[in-house]
């Protein structure tokens, strides 16, 4: 992803355990040095990428039955959003790993999915079809027609 980072135990006062903390330092350009992850130095997308990579790295150390990822792609540019999504899919579809719930109001088109995934869509809001006009089979037929009539790349 052309980024780098490191995590260390940050100690202000060795005798005051309440002041211990984890410090995450990252860089997103090869020409810069590592900087502490803060709201003031990195963009929102860079913080989201850093947070997601950190959480996925922790997965090997901290086992749990499921993980919830809520709107982590908000603020990411499309390139990083696609890369992080692919990493989440690859991580979530490994054997003996946690179940992932990836919650987001938007996804890029043509993202890779795995047969080991179940995708659920929640449709609601003021601009949705009335329930009596909702016809999933008709939507699927329309999608197939569109897919088969588009020229191959």
From TrEMBL:
GO CC terms: nucleus; Smc5-Smc6 complex
Q: InterPro entries per the record?
A: P-loop_NTPase
GO BP of this protein:
double-strand break repair via homologous recombination
* Keywords per UniProt: Coiled coil
The organism sits in which domain of life? Eukaryota
Recorded GO molecular functions are:
single-stranded DNA binding
In the record, the note on similarity to other proteins reads: Belongs to the SMC family. SMC5 subfamily.
Official protein name in the record:
Structural maintenance of chromosomes protein 5
Source species: Myotis myotis (Greater mouse-eared bat)
């Amino acid at each position: 992803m052309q980024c780098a980072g490191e995590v260390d135990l940050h100690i202000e006062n060795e005798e005051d355990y309440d002041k211990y903390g984890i410090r995450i330092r990252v860089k997103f350009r090869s020409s810069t040095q590592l900087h502490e992850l803060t709201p003031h130095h990195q963009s929102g997308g860079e913080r989201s990428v850093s947070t997601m990579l950190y959480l996925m790295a922790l997965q090997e150390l901290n086992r749990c039955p499921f993980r919830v990822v809520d709107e982590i792609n908000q603020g990411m540019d499309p390139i990083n959003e696609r890369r992080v999504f692919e990493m989440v899919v690859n991580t979530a579809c490994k054997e003996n790993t946690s179940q992932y719930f990836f919650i987001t109001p938007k996804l890029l088109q043509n993202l890779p999915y795995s047969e080991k995934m179940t995708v659920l869509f929640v449709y609601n809001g003021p601009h949705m079809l009335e329930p009596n006009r909702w016809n999933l089979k008709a939507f699927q037929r329309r999608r197939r027609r569109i897919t088969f009539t588009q020229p191959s790349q």
